[in-house]
UniProtKB/TrEMBL annotation:
One of its GO terms (molecular function) is ubiquitin protein ligase activity. It catalyses: S-ubiquitinyl-[E2 ubiquitin-conjugating enzyme]-L-cysteine + [acceptor protein]-L-lysine = [E2 ubiquitin-conjugating enzyme]-L-cysteine + N(6)-ubiquitinyl-[acceptor protein]-L-lysine. Keywords: Isopeptide bond, Metal-binding, Phosphoprotein, Transferase, Ubl conjugation, Ubl conjugation pathway, Zinc, Zinc-finger. Residues 36-108 form the UBR-type domain. Pathway: Protein modification; protein ubiquitination. Gene3D superfamilies: Zinc/RING finger domain, C3HC4 (zinc finger) (3.30.40.10). GO terms for cellular component: cytoplasm. This is Putative E3 ubiquitin-protein ligase UBR7.
Amino acid sequence: LYANFEEQTVSLVDVLEEDEELEEEASAVLAGSDSDHCSYPQGYVKRQALYACNTCTPQGGEAAGVCLACSYTCHEGHDLFELYTKRNFRCDCGNRKFSELQCKLHPEKDDTNSLNKYSHNFFGLYCTCRRPYPDPDDQVQDEMIQCVVCEDWLHGRHLGCAVPDCVEMQEMICESCMNQHVFLWAYAAHLAVQGPALQTKEEKGEQSEAGGDEVVEPSCKRSRQEAEPSCRLKALQEAGQKTDQSGAVFWPSGWRSRLCSCSTCQVQLAGAGLSFLLDEADTVLAYENKGKSNEQRQQGHDPLMSALDNLNRVQQLEIIHGYNDMKTELKDFLQTFAAEGKVVTSDDIRQFFEQQSRKRRRADSGPFFS
């Protein structure tokens, strides 16, 4: 099942599967949240997709966040800021902060949610530069990366360090949070992703300041290891390895499992509001994987892929051409929303496909080939 375009052999199945992967990535954030029911009854949700409504709670007032379902049902057509995901948040929709709006999905709410944490993100501002995204006045192409502690989004050029490859598989803690919780620098010296300068040193065979994945414990700690549990953080601090304590820090996959979980460290993390760092399920990657799994279970077997084998070559080529045309038009359609900073609703998508259906009916009424 192949077609040749510009001397490149393209499998129709490959085209569809590649697009399915993109759709899975785009929908992972939303699929991990409930789009039909307000999340308020669940309490402070471990992680969920959130929005802030600039129409109902503009800058100058109190910050508020609404869940995915309320963004669709209660705030359709409003000016919304997409906040990606936040941890331990309870939906504010319709509470005291919304003087002229009542939640349609779960109107009975407390006046406020005292444990919610807010930032300038809830007014559409991000990074240390406190600019909107997308920023109409910023022509520099730059990626936004979320800090796993404060959950603010920062421009790559404002991190104070080089952005490593495969950043989507890593977690980042911004410089401000590292300096606020200075004990994290001891972990960074041993666990953090190495920057380009450090990698160059090691390629030349020079000894680096950071110990990479190697954790050296003092001999006294090693000798008593079986007799009594030791504090991993204290051992790292006593090892005396240093790292440049500036700029954001990137952490590799699985780094949380290597943090010390002794009783002393648990108390320290709880006091700093960082207990979530000991929970691998708290990561955005774990949330997205859960969303992808939910999406796959809902979709089940796709009859389209099976039906392709029953088409002749001409029909297959026609589908490829039509599919590529639709992808181009859909991309142009979505770009208008991105340019205006608007959230795409289910009605917008439905309207797009209705327009496509009308175009096909008009085309079918004319000659088969132009």
